[in-house]
Amino acid sequence: MRNTCFKTPINSYWVTKYFMSKPPIRIAITGAAGQIGYSLLFRIASGAAFGPDQPVILHLIEIPDEKAMAALNGVCMELDDCAFPLLKGLVPTSNLDEGFKGVNWALLVGAVPRKAGMERKDLLGINGKIFTGQGNAIAKNAASDIRVLVVGNPCNTNSLIAANNAPGVPKNRFFAMTALDENRAKTQLAQKASVDVTAVTNLAIWGNHSATMYPDFFNTKINGRPVPEVISHREWLEKDFIATVQQRGAAIIKARGLSSAASAANAACNTVYKLTHPTPAGDWFSVGVHSDGSYGIEKGLIFSYPIRSNGKDFEIVQGVPLNDFSKAKIAATEAELKEEKSLVGDLLPK
Ligand code: NAD
Ligand code: LMR
Fold it and tell me: What is the pTM (predicted TM-score) of this model?
């Protein structure tokens, strides 16, 4: 059975010619020896983020610390030991210029995770400054088509810092990850409605990746029908569902003693895949992007919206109806992002 396909003309020559003829792209990943890195690198190298026909060269960036670099060396050994067909090179480094040299994508994961009892914005004082130097090094070294996804928390405001410290790089190349929240919300709704998770579409997370994020269930669909038509338990939707999604990160930390890692890596792959492939007709997905003022949100904030991609460029979906409940939730998460921005004023060049 296993060899059946090799009896057809589709032998390894043709597989190589048609599926692997693209030139490799360069991907920088910071925090490469950390928890998320340990899942993320292997998923990217196996094609889960950029597609099964896209070869990659991974630039793995860590802090200049003996223990971190030794761990990174071990990760590189394991990547070698996977013999991934798509993996065309590794550049392990603690030098930002080398790390971001010629890269087409930068996944900024390296940052301190929060501990139980903290909010993500409590990390701004420790993590915020990481993104000034990285933004600068990206502007100086990256390829002209660079796109940057920030995962390290608080990811919206860290992305804002990176974007504002990367002169010459268009602001719409900077993203903050809210796909994990979207995935969490989809699963909660699917379980409540006893449907497969693939039945849930059009789920937008609005605003900040924080306890104020708003998972908009009004415009989400289950098998093409609005969620409130399928799940009639309105109190559950308005209270339990939203709170569960908002607090899921804290619940994982409580359960594991460590913040989410494999699911975060999965969400990073989902985000990159969705930004680099056309969005299915009628659907949308969530990612924090540079606000252009859509829906009255302050311009320049990194705000999670419903997004569509044509595989190259993205757009903020316009005309999504928002009732008073949704407007109030969106106003609260915008207010928090404005507050975070004011806390990092010294990291944002005038
Ligand atoms: P971790 O502590 O296991 O790993 C972080 C790694 O980053 C470490 O290896 C550390 O040496 C490295 N690092 C720290 N500063 C760096 C720098 N300036 N340059 C390069 N590397 C650096 O943490 P983790 O569990 O992998 O989480 C990483 C970050 O991702 C945390 O801030 C966490 O809160 C965040 N996170 C975000 C989401 C999201 O949905 N946006 C989900 C999960 C985790
Ligand atoms: C998450 O949502 O799991 C991450 O942002 C980690 C955290 O601090 O909650």
Answer: 0.95
